[in-house]
Known about the structure:
Distance between the termini: 39 Å
Largest sheet: none
Helix content: over 70%
Radius of gyration: 22 Å
Strand content: under 5%
Mean pLDDT: 91
Structural class: mainly alpha
Low-confidence stretches: 1-23
Number of helices: 15
Shape: globular
Amino acid sequence: xxxxNLRIVCSLLAVILLSGCSNSxxxxxxxxxxxxxxxxxxxxxxxxxxxxxxxxxxxxxxxxERGTVYDSxxxxxFAQSDFSQLLSFNPEIPDVYNFLGTYALRDGDFDNALMSFxxxxxxxxxxxxxxxxxxxxxxxxxxxxxxxxxxxxxxQFDVNEPIRILxxxxxxxxxxxKDAGNMLQKRYDLMTxxxxxxxxxxxxxxxxxNESKLMQNLQKGVENNRQLAERLCEAYFYLGKYYxxxxxxxxxxxxxxxxxxxNIYNFVEHQQALYEIKLLETK
Length: 283
């Protein structure tokens, strides 16, 4: 009898908790859509490329521009086709190898991703985001020391950008969790401008603010839906990584889905949220 009553109490508590969760609605932006202007831009570029009288340099510029538009809209196959075509004109374009590397990274093709980012940096050793992308590639393959070296290089290009600090932390915690936390605090303290909205993500990681306050703060100064969508894409990804590290896989998976829902295809957080979901589903 007492056991039966205990089960009833536990069941009621579960219902109450689930009801509370369902009433707590996530902060969402309107998912970014392919606009008429985007479609018109692609049509105009394609029409210009159909002309036979344009010189090679102009043709390359148009192909690259169309490829970047495709990339921003999530049309990866079209973008990859354009960028690959560019290499037939000039095999030494750092941007192209970086783009191709991100597609390989997204698909889990780490060998080709690493090869592409290595080539990018051989052609231009100051290409900051190639260091981040190569760091993520090494991070995904368990080469944490190499990942740390590249992430540190990326961080040093701009020590005040919170996203650089966060990636360093995510990598360093795989090497030494306690030391990574200390370095996160130290780098946060060294920031000269903590009004940047994403600095609040670090503050959340450090326990200075709670999740509710983080979501309130990121809405400050938002001027349009695109800006809100970009901020949410970043915030939900790093929240997902936070809860994943806490062992709360279901919550992490939900947050990664929220990051994807904004359709900010050309953000590393969007690409990595998709990969995190794939990892969770294989488990």
